[in-house]
Amino acid sequence: MKGKTVSLIVIGILISFLIVGCGTKKGSEGNLKEELSLSVITTFAGEDGNAQRYKGAISAFEEETGVKINDSSATSDETFKARIKTDFQVGSEPDVLFFFSGADANSFIEEGKVVSIDTIRKEYPDYAGNMEDDFLVPSLVDGKKYTVPVNGYWEAMFCNQEVMDAAGVEVPGPDYTWDEFLDDCEKIKEAGYTPIAAALGEIPHYLWEYSIFNHTEPETHRKIPKDVKTGNGPAWIEGMKDVKELYEKGYFPENTLSAKDDETFALFTSDKAAFLIDGSWKVGGIVSACQSDPDDDSTLDREKLDKFTVTYVPTMGKRKATDLIGGLSMGYYISTKAWEDEAKREVAVDFVKYMTSDQMVADFAEHTASALKNAPDVNPEKFNSLQMKAIEMMEGATSLTVAAQDFFDGECRESTFDGMPRIVMGEVSAEDAVAEGISEYTKQTAE
């Protein structure tokens, strides 16, 4: 793990902001494809920092090839994941999909609705040829590789320094403990601010992950427990209890159980909340919140952005604060429907190759990781202050561990994700909620 972790971090730092196309050029071939269209769905939408880059890349591809992209991308949440599964079940799946490579993809892989990289390479040998094969994630269903990744991810803790200064709290360092975190949250609350921006009723995902990680360790974290008493079972229960304690102490927004994620995120960016435990994709959202025009980089208020930083999630137990959740968990799939359509097959391949070229991946990866064999050189002058802080934070990381929730599919999560309000309010015990989730997981994996 250490060797690959170092490679991922180094690759993630060697990045640029150039968007250079490598798709099909205009000409006789372009004219043949002029009337073609491709349906595409990704998660590059909403507050995702790559949403605008994705729109620009789509426009460039359309102009360069004459192919129309029918895009219906949306913000990633449980509703989005359910929508994708339903689309495949009813035969309305997209031609190309940017989606998770873990358990969320099991259903449509089992049904043979997407094509493996090896199958595509039989006809297009250079497909994903610029990627390190060791970093391409194998399916949990059959061990085959289906997704071509663009950018990796990390999860960490963002801080609003203006709020923290007002509360007399220092920005946490690499040895930040859970007890210190609780003390700081109390000071922030007493100063009249919300300590933690989180919508527990909608997206408790990242707090859920780290609360459990605080009771496991990098080598064992991803293992799904068989029951509540063995393996990681007790760790999952203790993690849920820690979230419940934070709720009981009043460290979340008053409406945390009913609020939407964008509402609580706005608390953080509008200087009303101190901490935000989330993923690397939120860097772009914070930057946009510091622009008078979210779509115009030139309107960035750099002084405002300088008040935000990112650091490590507080730790307890064997996990170090510098042990992060992260990796390469998403990528582009080509659907079997598109592959079997002779008019669309090459266009779908061209599109994925275009979106996963070295320069395009480098642009999307920013301060995260990639699977590129040869990442372009970086120009530090292209980065804003928050991106530089993210790079510095990643340089201090001691490990990257994939999220356990990536292997804990759909209905398995309902008792803890959807059921988080009931857990923190004491209506359901953490033990019963975890037991229900494990039971559903056992039933699914046995089918």
Structure, described:
The protein is of the alpha/beta class and 447 residues long. Helices cover 41% and strands 11% of the residues. The strands form two sheets. Strands 4, 5, 6, 7, 8 and 10 form a six-stranded mixed β-sheet that branches. The protein has a four-stranded mixed β-sheet with strand order 2-1-3-9. Helix 9 (205-213) packs across helix 10 (233-248) and helix 10 crosses helix 20. The longest helix has 17 residues, at 430-446. It is globular, with a radius of gyration of 22 Å.
| SSE pattern | HHEHEHEHHEHHEHHHEHHEEEHHHHEHHH
Shape: globular
Number of helices: 20
Mean pLDDT: 89
Terminal residue distance: 31 Å
Counting DSSP E segments of at least 2 residues, the number of strands comes to: 10
Portion of residues in beta strands equals 5-15%
Unreliable sequence segments: 1-33
Could you estimate the helical fraction of the residues in percent?
40-55%
- What's the Cα radius of gyration? 22 Å
Structural class label: alpha/beta
Oligomer: single chain
The major pleated sheet works out as: 6 strands, mixed
Any key phrases for this structure?
20 helices; 4-stranded mixed beta sheet; alpha/beta; globular; single chain; 447 residues
In short:
With 447 residues, the chain is of the alpha/beta class. It contains 20 helices and ten strands.
Which helices and strands appear, and what pairs or packs with what?
Layout: H1 2-13, H2 28-32, E1 37-41, H3 51-65, E2 68-71, H4 78-89, E3 96-100, H5 106-110, H6 117-123, E4 153-160, H7 161-166, H8 178-190, E5 194-196, H9 205-213, H10 233-248, H11 261-269, E6 273-279, H12 282-289, H13 302-305, E7 308-311, E8 323-327, E9 330-334, H14 336-339, H15 345-355, H16 358-365, H17 385-395, E10 399-401, H18 414-418, H19 420-424, H20 430-446
Parallel strand pairs: 1-2, 1-3, 5-6, 8-10
Antiparallel strand pairs: 3-9, 4-6, 4-7, 4-8
Helix pairs in contact: 9-10, 10-20
